[in-house]
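Hello K.,

You asked for the raw outputs rather than the summary table, so here they are, unedited. I folded two proteins back to back in the same session to keep the settings identical. This is the first:
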Amino acid sequence: MATVQKRKFFTILKYLFFLGLGIVLLWLSFRKLDMTEVWQDIKGANYYWLIVALILALASHIFRALRWNLLINSLNYKTKLSTTFYAVMVGYMANTAVPRMGELARCGVLSKKEKIPFNALFGTVISERLFDLITLMAIIVLVIFFQFKSLSSFLTTTFGPFFSNLASNISSLILFSVVSLLVLVLIYFIIKALKERIKKLPFYQKLREFFEGLWDGVKTIMKLKQKWRFLIYTFFIWLFYAGMVYFPFFLLPETSQLTMADALTVLAIGSLGVVAPVPGGIGAYHFIVKAVLVEIFGVGGNAAGSFAAITHGGQTILNVFVGSLSYFYMGVLSKREKPLNE
């Protein structure tokens, strides 16, 4: 009981830490801005373009559900597009509250609804996210190629001090790496030596079954029969992501001259703010997007802050609203329907 309470305490502590980090980054993003002007920008923005961006966001989520269905079907389970879409939206809603909880949440609700093993579903999500990471890396390479001069100046200004400190402490870094490697090697040999005893433990078989199911899910991308459809769905997901950045440029006069190539730059670097371990990317997204707009494209600080606040706010409201409706459907209304995999 004490162990469970301690685990809960550290979970809450970790959540509060990252929430605090997000608030600090949010403060750093807006502390030098004229908040009166920022508020005027927010009130006077052309929200038609935000609506367009949110429609594209929903379209990207639909294509994500379609793509996820391909992986799930490779496990020989059936899922409806509507059910998978609701699960995806529940995941986005969960990410708004707790970082990285969305992947667990969407697998949890779909597993319960369609009677599909959770570990297999989670494996498909890992496979899906790895492919998205490769896609993001490809976009970053394109951005670096086409915007090399602007980016090199931005990276030197932003991360130069960090790498200088890193270089001055290279001996400590090497020592840390060597010690970490030795610890991993030691753990490996301990597990190898105690392998037979570990196999006799009560939870061993359950743990093994869990990871086998997880691996089955990860392998789905290699077993896909419709690989071209998977690639097409991925293309549209990222195309809509780019549109979600590009069309909001027309919210404000100061950003309306930016191009689709600029949108890809904001998307590539801004994605780092979304994956940061803070609830809903709060603070991290604002900090990075504002820095990109100001340092690379010369947008005024107030307009850049307004753009970040409006786009982040719109996405958050969409995820919470549609995610809540999806959760209500999955948890209440769908109980009347018979699961496809029974």
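The second followed immediately with the same parameters:
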Amino acid sequence: MAQREILKAVKKALERPVKRNFTESIDLAINLRNIDMSNTQNRIDEEIILPNGLGKPVKIAVFASGELAVNAEKAGADLIILPEQIDVLGENKKRAKTLANDHDFFIAEASLMPSIGKNLGTVLGPRGNMPSPIPPGADISKPIERLRKTVKIRSKDKITFHTIVGCETMAPEEIAANIEAIIKRLETKVEKHKIHSIYVKTTMGPSIRVL
């Protein structure tokens, strides 16, 4: 669809008489139809790099040791989890769930993936937070930089699902470009006629139809 139509909807969503005392997120609601979501192959589970990011911090945790851990910290990772901490987290499910809920993305040294799967798979897996593996000698700054501008869209078994596409401090044009990127990716996964509708809204504002 034309970006001007998306932009028009975004501008309308940003028009509101009441100014909140916090920065509102911009949310996108996607409604599909005529799709059997009980079939896992039909579900949407995508990570999309937004051209303009989210306009707010994205929290990233890294499972790593040695030089990779040092480099991850230098690259701005929000949390470094050492190998010996994985077993401890596995034994404390409450703490593990808090960790999973407090971070948007996880990266892991490839050799640690079996231990993470064994100890934390039941916590991270259902949330779509299983780490992206990375070789020990890789430049970890690149995936961290990429994830700072990445958003997840996950339908699970629902035909209606949501994602964040920015925040109210961003220019409407930036938000519209982010929405366009998501729609384009969605259209590679779902036939256009099966996308029933898409709405955009601020955290506390009314829903405005985009599609």
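The longest helix spans residues 172-189.

Happy to rerun anything if the numbers look odd on your end.

Regards,
P.
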